[in-house]
């Protein structure tokens, strides 16, 4: 919450916020589920680490959807993160692109954010190296998450976690494609 509205935030700091919020929540949920079901330290640790990396990939995808999707595809009004002052990685990349070009990123006040302003941010995002960077970041965290599953016995639960990770990866590819 402290970082809210700070659009000069670094990508590193933005990642740290994700790690402390969504990644920590997913890690705790996966670890707790494993602790109640498996009672094996190795499994608990592996699933906790899975949750951590999955959580980061999930949050990045969610942030991209909020910035880049339209209302019909998103199922809610896009741009809610920006309106709330939440600084996300895709938004930082779009703002950085504007700054490199000597342009003002947010021409309208956040209170009056409209389709035109969101479209402008989306265009900046796609014109920058951001889609490639985001895709690589999501793929890296999904790969790290799935690696944790190698130490776990095959089961329908393990298969479900693989499928869930694959859905996040596919969702990232979908939302990053123009």
CATH architecture: Orthogonal Bundle
- End-to-end separation in angstroms reads 31 Å
Q: Can you tell me the CATH class?
A: Mainly Alpha
Q: Report the structural category.
A: mainly alpha
Largest sheet: number of strands, sense, barrel closure: none
Low-pLDDT windows of residues: none
Q: What share of the residues does DSSP label as strand, in percent?
A: under 5%
Question: What pattern of helices and strands is seen along the backbone?
Answer: HHHHHHHH
DSSP strand tally: 0
Describe the structure.
The chain is built from eight helices and no strands. Helix 5 (89-100) crosses helix 6. The protein has one domain (11-176): Orthogonal Bundle (Farnesyl Diphosphate Synthase). The model has no long low-confidence stretch (mean pLDDT 86). It is elongated. The longest helix is centred in the N-terminal third of the chain and has 28 residues, at 41-68. It has helices spanning 11-37, 41-68, 71-74, 80-84, 89-100, 115-127, 130-148, 156-176. The protein starts with 10 loop residues before the first helix and ends with a helix. The protein is mainly α.
